[in-house]
Design goal:
alpha/beta, 9-stranded mixed β-sheet, about 450 residues, Rossmann fold, 3 domains, globular, UDP-N-acetylmuramoyl-L-alanine:D-glutamate ligase, about 30% helix, 6-stranded mixed β-sheet
């Protein structure tokens, strides 16, 4: 059971006022704590601070006061705040507990079955899919790094019978008691190395998800990623894996191969097998087959009947901005992959479409991140029909790729949509997968994706 947490009359410092920090401050105040919230940014640089003043939260913006940390009874840290912050280090040296927002909320909840999903890529889709499958069986809260902090569940007063959380390495750094009935790590590849000394330190943060598991829990690993396999093996729970190839005990395997409909076989240690098909376009691509296998294992362990899992796989709508099918018009699919803000993500997006004939009209560009676009070259052959470039990094995109296919510099997303519509034929796919950040022309990848959706829907 979580260590009891009594906040009434205690001094709580919340560090970082993005969405998680705001929710944590409101939650602590609602439990009778004296709450002070600090952020290095000033009010005009922050998002909405709704409800903090009414809750009696005292704000300290524009910098941190070291004394706030050492006189607190508890420090709650938002995911974007590194625990290496000197003020946090001093608080710990003086015996002040430091926890993440998700740990605060977990310690205040009655213990529920919790599915925790981490990994470098695929967390959001797997979390959303696992949550969608579980909701067919029991009242389920879905959130965490996906968008809604766990604190919001307590603030809402809604009842829940299970929790599914996307958990980043940043969040996992600050957990102590959080217990995942099902813990899944999808993959570990280099990321956030500006915050971690090396890849092993980054992986170690993710491995914390498995530390509080118990016998009878489920630990899920990607069979092709040795780091995740080692994490699952370290758990006191039962280790299962997912991957490609023939059926195996305690595993979900995609046995279909190729680019057609996916068939997943889930085999228990006794050899009993269940079969599921994955044919929804929202789950196209090898990466989404992995996501689906992981989600099926999570849902099955928490008792979702096989028939309900299949129905959920068939109807999953996908997430906005991640290979999102916007519409079909004149036999042409319009697909929004605005979340692909780097070359690796665009590689995954392109690979989701079968090779064999050029049928993808690709819109790329924006504010580049300094990486070359040449890793995309092998994916163009037999797949990409034309390239339309936009934004600041259009010249670099063209330098690396324009010799492969007919290329037009559109400049703006609106122009690219018009040009792609004119070039598309029935059976083609117009794919926005920029491989760049959006900040040259949009405030976020979401705004860029929303604009693409609107432009595509307005086509006549």
């Amino acid at each position: 059971m979580p260590t009891p947490l009594e906040l009434r009359g205690r001094n709580v410092l919340v560090v970082g006022l993005a969405r998680s920090g705001v929710a944590a401050a409101r939650l602590a105040a609602s439990r009778g704590a004296r709450v002070r919230a600090t952020d290095r940014r000033v009010a005009t640089e922050l998002g909405p601070l709704a409800g903090l003043e009414e809750a009696g939260v005292e704000l300290a913006l524009g910098g941190h006061d070291a004394a706030d940390f050492t006189r607190a009874d508890l420090v709650v840290v938002s995911p974007g705040v590194p625990l290496a912050l000197p003020e946090i280090g001093e608080a710990r040296r003086q015996g002040v507990p430091v926890v993440a927002e998700v740990e605060l909320a977990w310690r205040l909840l009655p213990e529920l079955p919790l599915v925790g999903i981490t990994g470098t890529n695929g967390k959001s889709t797997t979390t959303a899919l696992a949550g969608s499958l579980l909701r067919r069986h029991r009242r389920t809260f879905v959130g965490g790094n996906l968008g809604t902090p766990l604190s919001e569940l307590l603030l809402s007063g809604r009842a829940a019978e299970a929790v599914v959380l996307e958990l980043s390495s940043f969040q996992l750094e600050g957990i102590e008691d959080l217990h995942a009935t099902v813990a899944a790590c999808l993959n570990v590849t280099p990321d956030h190395l500006d915050r971690y000394r090396d890849l092993e330190a980054y992986a170690a943060a993710k491995a914390r998800l498995f530390a509080n598991q118990r016998p009878g829990d489920l630990a899920v690993a990607n069979a092709r990623d040795p780091r995740t396999v080692a994490m699952a093996a370290s758990s006191p729970g039962e280790a299962w894996s997912f991957g490609f190839g023939p059926p195996a005990p305690r595993a979900a395997r995609d046995v279909s191969g190729g680019d057609g409909p996916c068939e997943i076989v889930v085999t228990s240690s006794s050899g009993a097998a269940e079969r599921y098909r994955v044919s929804a376009r929202s789950l196209r691509g090898r990466h989404n087959r992995e996501n689906a296998m992981a989600a099926v294992l999570c849902a099955r362990r928490l008792g979702v009947p096989a028939a309900e899992i299949q129905a959920g796989l068939d109807t999953f709508p996908g997430l906005p901005h991640r290979l999102e099918l916007v519409r079909e018009h004149g036999g042409v699919e319009w697909v929004n992959d605005s979340k692909a803000t780097n070359v690796d993500s665009t590689q995954v997006g392109l690979a989701a479409f079968p090779a064999g004939r050029p049928h993808v009209l690709l819109i790329m560009g924006g504010r580049g991140k300094g990486a070359p676009y040449t890793p995309l070259r092998p994916l163009f052959a037999g797949r990409v029909k034309a390239l339309f470039t936009v934004g600041e990094d259009a010249p670099a995109v063209e330098r690396d790729l324009a010799d492969l296919v007919p290329t037009e510099r559109a400049g703006t997303l609106a122009a690219a949509v018009v040009q792609a519509a004119a070039a598309a034929a029935p059976g083609d796919v117009v794919l926005l997968s920029p491989a760049c950040a959006s900040y040259d022309q949009f405030r976020s990848y979401e705004e860029r994706g929303d604009a693409f959706r609107r432009l595509a829907v307005e086509l006549r």
